[in-house]
């Protein structure tokens, strides 16, 4: 309804007066104005579907059209999307953002930089062509409205950074290979203590309604492990969703993960029983080993 009203009004200059009149009639904080305030747009770009099942994400501040592209690892699948949006005047691409240095996340940087001049490369210290590594907790902006906070989450790689973005009451986090829906990344360059801190201190501290956008679509395999460990209602619900949907990114929140992701339930007596451990770091280590050998 709001969209229809807006598009009619925006299509005619005569309607500006009507719009202004409506603004004086509709109380602030109503649904009408709240929907106007949502300006962060996220486009998922699946890559290597059926193999790595990676995601790149195009994040745009709609009022200014300023955009960043997250982990554009496979340029043949990402560049055409960027080109068509630039040519249509829909985006002003300013930066590549990388969640970590692995080739299937940062390996496309060189080619993207050749095709799109003058981009900043924001990411961890080991990412290809990186020229801005934010400090842990450092914030920056995309356009006028989107605030971005870099959260260091070393373990999968030592340069892993999750990017928490907020625009009004819209909250999202891009978690790379640290947190997946119903799972977590392998501990390639770190240990269970670091993953426990990343998931259960750093990411768990985000507001529960923060939507999760991971680096891969691994939910089907992850929920298989979760259900083998624990047969709770939230896990059964996730299993049903994964069976019916091929894409699960942005559909679950940090609050959901605390319920259906066993790696975020390291203080739960049910998980203690299954792993035979009670110390959260030892529980994390045990779960990862069980998952690796599944
Ligand atoms: Zn990785």
TrEMBL record:
The entry's keywords: Hydrolase, Metal-binding, Zinc
EC main group: hydrolase
UniProt cross-references to SUPFAM superfamilies, sorted A to Z: Metallo-hydrolase/oxidoreductase
InterPro entries (UniProt xref): Clx_II_MBL (IPR035680), HAGH_C (IPR032282), Hydroxyacylglutathione_Hdrlase (IPR017782), Metallo-B-lactamas (IPR001279), RibonucZ/Hydroxyglut_hydro (IPR036866)
EC numbers: 3.1.2.6
GO MF annotation terms: hydroxyacylglutathione hydrolase activity; metal ion binding
Boundaries of every Metallo-beta-lactamase domain copy: 53-216
Pathway: Secondary metabolite metabolism; methylglyoxal degradation; (R)-lactate from methylglyoxal: step 2/2
Presence of the UniProt keyword Iron in the record: no
Reaction equations catalysed: an S-(2-hydroxyacyl)glutathione + H2O = a 2-hydroxy carboxylate + glutathione + H(+)
Any one GO biological process: methylglyoxal catabolic process to D-lactate via S-lactoyl-glutathione
Cofactor section: Zn(2+)
Keyword Zinc set for record: yes
Protein family membership: Belongs to the metallo-beta-lactamase superfamily. Glyoxalase II family.
This protein's name: hydroxyacylglutathione hydrolase
């Amino acid at each position: 309804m709001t969209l229809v009203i807006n598009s009619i009004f925006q299509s005619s200059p005569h309607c500006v007066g009507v719009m202004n009149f409506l603004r004086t009639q509709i109380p602030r904080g109503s649904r009408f104005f709240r929907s106007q305030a949502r300006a962060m747009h996220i486009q998922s770009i699946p890559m290597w579907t059926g193999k790595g099942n990676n995601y790149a994400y195009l994040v745009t501040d709609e009022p200014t059209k300023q955009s960043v592209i997250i982990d554009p690892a496979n340029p043949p699948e990402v560049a055409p999307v960027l080109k068509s949006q630039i040519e249509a005047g829909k985006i002003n691409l300013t930066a590549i953002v990388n969640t970590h240095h692995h080739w299937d996340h940062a390996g496309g940087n060189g080619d993207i930089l050749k095709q799109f001049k003058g981009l900043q490369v924001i990411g961890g210290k080991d990412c290809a062509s990186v020229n801005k590594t934010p400090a842990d907790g450092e914030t920056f902006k995309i356009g006028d409205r989107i605030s971005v906070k870099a959260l260091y989450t070393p373990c999968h790689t030592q340069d892993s950074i999750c990017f928490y973005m907020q625009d009004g009451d819209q909250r999202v986090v891009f978690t790379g290979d640290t947190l997946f829906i119903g799972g977590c990344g392998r501990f390639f360059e770190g240990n269970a203590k670091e993953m426990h801190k990343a998931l259960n201190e750093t990411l768990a501290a985000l507001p529960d309604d923060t939507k999760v956008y991971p680096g891969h679509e691994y939910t089907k395999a992850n929920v298989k492990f979760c259900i083998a460990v624990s047969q709770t209602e939230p896990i059964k619900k996730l299993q049903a969703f994964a069976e019916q949907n091929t894409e699960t990114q942005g559909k679950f929140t940090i609050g959901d993960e605390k319920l259906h992701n066993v790696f975020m339930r390291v203080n739960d007596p049910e998980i203690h029983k299954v792993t035979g451990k009670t110390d959260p770091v030892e529980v994390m280590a045990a779960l990862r080993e069980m998952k690796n050998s599944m």
